[in-house]
Amino acid sequence: MQSQVQTEKKIILVGNPNVGKSVVFNTLTGSYTTVSNYPGTSVEVSRGQCEIDGENYQVLDTPGMYSLLPITEEERVARRILLEESPYIVLHVIDARNLERMLPMTLQLIEAGLPVVLLINIMDEAERVGMHVDVALLQEKLQIPVVGGAMGRAKRGLWELRDAIRDFKVSKATFNYATDLEKDIHGISSLMQGDYTLDRRSLTLMLLQRDEEIAERVKDREGARYESIEKAVNDTIFDRRVDLHLRISLERKRVCKGLLDGVITQQEGDRQTFADRLSNWTMNPWTGIPLLLIVLYMGLYQFVGVFGAGTIVDFLEGTLFEEYLNPWVIGLCNQYIPWYWLNELLVGEYGLFTLGVRYAVAIILPIVGTFFIAFAVIEDSGYFPRLAMLVDRVFKKIGLNGRAVIPMVLGFGCDTMATVVTRTLESTRERIIATLLLALAIPCSAQMGVILGLLSGVPGALMAWMASMVGVFLLVGFLAAQIVPGERPMFYMEIPPMRLPQFQNVMIKTLTRMQWYFMEIFPLFMIASVLLVAGKLTGALEWLVGMFNPVMRLLGLPNEASAAFIFGFFRRDFGAAGLYDLQTDGLLDPVQLTVAAVTLTLFVPCVAQFLVMQKERGWKTSLAIFFLVTGMAFAVGWSLNKFLLMTGILA
C-alpha cells in the first residue's frame, strides 16, 4: 500500500485565499480526505484521492499564498510543498474578477518550471458584472492548459478540468522582462550548476528579491561556487540602486497586462443583486453590527446553545448515559473489578467512562458538532471575510487584524479548537495575543450556555457580565498590543461572492473537523479524568479546595464556590454547572452570582485548552498566560464585587 501511495501522481492546488480552492479540492476528492500538520510546521494541509479515467491522483490543498516569495508561515509551507512534493500538476486557482492581480503568480509558477494548469474560477460572477474572458486566447498566450469554470453549486468546468488533468503535457511560454534585467538574470543563473527543483531563472529572481530560504537552498547545492553567486547578486543589487523587488513586480504586471490584451472584454453587467447588497451591508458598521448580532444569536445561541447544548445534550447525557449506559457499565465494573482504585478510575465520580467519555461524547460532542455545522455554513456562505473587514479597525487596536475574527468566533464554540486555529495568524505576536484573549475573555458555548441560563433570570446581571467580558477583552488586548514585541499586523483579504452554502461542502468540512476532535481533543478528556481521580484518591483535590477558600472570601463568595472554580479548570462548563447547584441551593445572592459568573468566565482555561496552549505556544508562554489570566480574573472579580456593593445596582 505504501508503494502505491508513493507512485500516485500529485495534483497540488495553489492560489490566493478565498478563490475557491477548497471547493475545487472537495469537488475532485469527495469526502475521502485527511487533514494533518505539514511535517515540521503547525500549518494544516488537506490531502485526498481523485480518480480520472481509471488513474489515481493524490490531491493536496495548500494554504493560501499570494506569491512564490513568502511572507507568512502559510505561504512558506505552500512553497515548501511545491519544492518537496514533486507535483505532477500544479493547479493554480484564480478569481476571474481579479485576473490582472492574480496572473503574476501564474507567471511565477511558469517561470519556476512547474507543470501548471490554470483554473479561472468564479466565472459566473465575472460574467454577471459584464466581464468576458477569452479562455482559449489566454491558453494560447500562456501555452499551458487554461480552464474556465465556476466550481460552486453548478460545478461548471469540472469535466474540462478533469480532461485537462488527464491529457496534461508539459509546455510553457517564455516571458521577457526589460533588457537590463534580463542581462542580470542570465548572468547570475549561468553561475548555477547544482540540481534544482525550480528553474534557475526563477531562483535568480528570488535571490535578487532577498529570499533567505532560497539563498540557503542555493548555498547547499552550490557549495564553494555560492560565493561567486552571492557576490554577483550583491553587485547587481548595488549597481542597480533600485528596489529590485518592486522592479520585478512591475515587470510582471507589465507582462500580464500584455497577456490580458484582448482576453478580457467588458460589457454592461446585471444590476446589483440582493447578494451584492447583502455583501455591502455586512461590511458597513451601521448594518454589519446588527447583522453580526443576528448571526451570533441564530447561529451560536439558538442552534449551538439551545439545540446543541440543550436538546441534544439532554437526550444523550440525561437519557442515554444516565438512564442506560452509566448504570450498565457501573454494574459490570462493580461485578468484575474488585480493586477500589481501578473501579474509581473507570466508573467513579471522575472516572474515565462516567466523566471522561460521558463529557466528551454526551456533553461536548453535541456542542462542538453543532458549532462545526454552523461554522461551516457561515464559512461556505462567504461571510467570514466580510466579518474580518468589519472588525479589522477595532482588532488593530488590540494587536490583531481582521483575520483573527475566525479563531475568536470559533472560541465561542470551543476555545481548545480555536487555540489550534490561531496557527492561521501571520506572526508569533498575533498568535500570543489571540491565545491570551481566548484563554481570558472568550467563553466556550458549553460554559456560555449555562451562564446565560443562570443570569437571564436576574435583572441586570447579564448586562453586567457582558460589559465585563467586552471591557476586559478590549483592555487586555490593548495592553498586550503595547507590550508583546513584534511587528504590527498587515491585513489583506480576498472577498469571495456571497452564496448559499452547499450541503456537500458543509458536510465535508464538518466531518473533517469532527475527525480532528476525536483524534486530538478526546484524549485530553481522558487525561483530565485521570488527574481528577488521582487528586481525589491522594487528597490533593480536597486540599486544593481548602486553599481556594480565602480567595473566595476576598471575592465575597461562600467557601462552597471553591469546588466550582477547581472543576472549571478541568471543564469550563463543569464549573458553571457548580454555580448552578450553588444558586439552586440558595447560597448565592444576585451580586455573588454575577461576580462568580464573571470571575469563572475569566478564570484559567480548562485543562484541554491549557494542554493545547502548551503544544502550540510552549511551556514558557503557556504558564505566563495561565498565571496572568488567573490574576486578572480574581482582580476583576474583586473590583466588580466592590463596585456592585457600592452602587447597589443588583440589590
Care to describe what's here?
- The protein has 651 residues and is an alpha/beta fold.
- It folds into 3 domains: 2-166, P-loop containing nucleotide triphosphate hydrolases (Rossmann fold); 179-266, Helix Hairpins; 285-493 and 502-647, no CATH class.
- Helices cover 66% and strands 8% of the residues.
- The chain is built from 29 helices and 9 strands.
- The chain has helices spanning 2-7, 21-29, 73-84, 99-111, 123-128, 135-142, 158-166, 179-189, 200-208, 212-222, 226-240, 244-259, 274-283, 285-336, 340-347, 352-381, 383-397, 405-411, 415-421, 428-441, 445-455, 461-483, 503-538, 540-554, 561-570, 572-584, 590-602, 607-617, 619-647; strands spanning 9-14, 33-37, 44-52, 55-61, 89-95, 116-121, 131-133, 146-148, 264-266.
- Strands 2-3-4-1-5-6-8 form a 7-stranded mixed sheet, with helices on both faces. Strands 7-9 form a two-stranded antiparallel ribbon.
- Helix 4 (99-111) links the parallel strand 5 (89-95) and strand 6 (116-121).
- Mean pLDDT is 84; it is low at 1-6.
Concise structural overview:
The protein has 29 helices and 9 strands.
The number of distinct β-strands equals 9
Shape estimate: elongated
Major sheet: arrangement of strands: 2-3-4-1-5-6-8
Residue share in helix? 55-70%
Overall structural domain count: 3
**Structural class, from helix and strand content?**
alpha/beta
Radius of gyration: 28 Å
Approximately what portion of the residues adopt beta-strand conformation? 5-15%
Tally of individual helices: 29
Poorly predicted sequence stretches spanning 5 or more consecutive residues: 1-6
What average pLDDT do the residues reach? 84
Distance between the termini: 70 Å
What characterizes the major β-sheet?
Answer: 7 strands, mixed
